[in-house]
Amino acid sequence: MNTPTPAPGPTDLDLVCYQPDLLMIRDLIERLERRLWRCYGDTRELRGLALALSEACVNVVVHGGGASFIRLIGDFGKDQVTVTMLDDSAEFDLSAVKASLPDDPLAVSGRGLFLIHQCVDTLSYQRVSHQNQHRFEVRLVSSTQAPGAQTQPATETATAA
Amino acid sequence: MMQDIQVDAFDENTRITPRFVRLDAANARDFRDACLGLQLTTTRVVLDLSHVKFIDSTGLGALVAIKRQLGSSPGSGSDVVVVVPDPSVRTIFEITRIDKAIRVTPSYEEATA
Fold first, then answer.
1. Is B24 on the interface with A (CB under 8 A)?
2. Which value does ipTM take for this structure?
3. How far is residue A150 from each of residues A37, A154, B10, measured CA to CA in Å?
């Protein structure tokens, strides 16, 4: 299966949520997934990108002291997808953090940063104008859909928890 | 949360099936608390994630917390198995090596075999 080539554009994705909480983060990531799936289909790399961004957004809400906004700006290329995440929470460079699994396999926490690093090819950071700017990049290696791929993103079918 | 979780108790195992498709930071703690609040009567507990298509680190943490608490003493719920049919979700268990600490199977039948 050939990966469809999205129409070129300087900004292929621009999503924002204000005063984000965890449910808003979920909604933001679902919107991201819908855009990605629509352009490329449901691939392993893009599922990983969505997971990495979800982890990063949750990190802002839970550990970053909160933010007044989180914004996702995406550039969809033929062979790679780049999403820049901007937020105004406390300065924090995800790319500089040592990403390893907890020694205890039954540790309840400590896997989020590891998953971020595992799921993207390149992660970079800048602090600009009191904002964190993380750049997530994945190369689209597989031209086939993810195993168990679905045509729609994983949206809730039951009452929101 | 309980209305989003189906609980079926059989002779040898209890099957807990969340009906939502995302187990993430927005619902993982409620899911954990709901599971740990159940009155279990079987040794084996099967967490059937057949509906789950997305799991994040908080969701994984909730499963680990359930395993830790239920498995900490012999008796009801001490054998926790997680059913993960979705290969992409199962990959998350593999790269975080949680599958080394918790038994993960692709089907309910294999979980109870």
1. yes
2. 0.91
3. 9, 8, 32
